[in-house]
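Box S2. Input/output pair 1.
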Amino acid sequence: MPVSAEIEARRVRAKEWFESLQQRICAELERLEDEAPPELFPGDPGRFDFRPWTRESGVGGGVGGHFKGRLFEKAGVHTSSAVAQFSPEMAAQMPAADKDPSYVSASISLIVHPVSPRVPTVHMNTRFLSTAVSWFGGGADLTPMLDEQRSQDADDARLFHAAMKAACDAFDPEYHPKFKAWCDEYFFLPHRNEHRGVGGIFYDRHDTGDFEKDFAFTRAVGEAFLDVYPKIVRHRMVEPWGEAERAEQLVRRGRYVEFNLLYDRGTMFGLKAGGNVETILSSMPPMVAWP
């Protein structure tokens, strides 16, 4: 079935927003890279390498923003969009796609793996997807690398949760407790019986019936991330660390790999929907250890 003009207009608006947010986030990460203390982070500041890609099936593609630097060991800030059709397997899992597998989408996703074990890893993604019905999804979550920082009462966790709560409360006071609990449930490793990090918010198939409100909320999540994570980085990047903390960081990164490959629905969706493998798997940390 052809995509309606209204749905295509919504996809284009979402795509343009995600692309503008990508550029602003990348600029801020580069700014942090420049600010990092040279005595702790020697070498030249890194810069993003932007790699456009085109879908092999359907219409669309995206821009992968890849980064390696002295403060951020690895980062990826990527956008994508599509006008395509789900495979029969994927269509069976998507609302209103069983009869017509056509869909449109637009998204931004990012992962940041800092060099310092004292600076938390962070993940954020937001997306718009439409079959015969439309919705938004996404969220942001924080993963401190050191056990001493992994309490919900730790400074970074409290700051991150406060930012996400403010974004939610501006739209509905019921959003934050619901989406925070959803995040805790989603980013959980059952085989380890532990959470991946200290959480944040997670929402999916979010459709109140008011596109403008839902789009504004999704934008607010992106703005909240752009405001709070640099604050955390600036606070933590001046702290020295030792080999024991680096070893703890590498083990914690192993948990990150386990979750992304075993349980992450976004990873599975991207691979099965014909996304760009390079950007999908850029969430993998550059160095990792299992004890």
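Box S3. Input/output pair 2.
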Amino acid sequence: MDGPPVPISATDAGSHRTPDPLAVAATIRGLVLPAQRRYVEQLMPSVAHVVGYHVGWLDENGNDAIGRAGKSVRPVIAVLAARAAGLRETVAVRAAVAVEMVHHFSLLHDDVIDGDRERRHRPAAWTVFGTPAAILTGDALLAGSVQLIAEIGGGHGRRATELLVATVQELVRGQSLDVAFERRRSVTPDEYSDMVHGKTASLLSCAACLGPVLAGAPDSVTGGFAAFGSHLGMAFQLVDDLLGIWGDPANTGKPVLADVHRRKKSAPVLAALNSGESGARRLAELYDRPHALDADEAGEAAHLIEQCGGRHWAEAQAARHTESALARLRSVGADPEQLTTLAALTSHFLRRDR
């Protein structure tokens, strides 16, 4: 597995033609989705119903539905990284399903914690089935994800299980910080980065290195994939923060200025508050309100965030982490063709409509 750095970029990979990201992602989803559904169908019926609704397979009555499919970023990354490390496809798909189940565990719980009533243009699961059902369904997915990896067995399976459990602990820590930040008057950029590492980057890091760990790849390879996933996660959250303020509801599935109404201290907001610009004081006054911002207040806040440079700063940071992610791929000694595909998909996943 060891070898010289692979010359690779998002658009040029030497002798390897850049693949069509959409086609690759669709093919991998075609592998992972049936496996995910088979596992979910083995859960107790009430839990399987909530999961099916949450991911868009079913309507609230349990009938088949055609929901808006997500990009499946984590399972796609998991399968490609596993392939690059030489892992068998069946095990790679199992790892991808486990990562996706952890992701949906976190989403089910996050919607309850944040009080978000919509996800992907539909009522959130907790508003349909109740808070207890949503929480218990998330718990079932979490337990199932660990079981999927633990059943692989052997030394590599044990290391992968430990990695997955440590990742869940990071997710919980990151979400706890995120909730705490909403109650605090000031948050530093370093504190924000630490929160994002736990809440978002840790799971993408896990997705990128879980397959290589299961393949028994050396630390230089697993570490490279982990760093790639971490930088990708940081960039992904920064883009998500931008969408939370300036995103088109038709694409994001969330109401206009959703994060601003909740006075969420996302990256653009923190950059603006710490900018020293004249509008920062007024923005702080708005974010110190004890209630959710109304439409006029949210509109004013969004204008101030952009005026104080928050939007520009977040876009620049997202670009920096994207380049760092691609740079780590260049240093990984693994299958060049799969790394080329990963690079192309990295750029694709981060080009999200605003």
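Caption for Box S3: The two ends are 40 Å apart (CA to CA). The domain at 21-350 is CATH 1.10.600.10 (Farnesyl Diphosphate Synthase).
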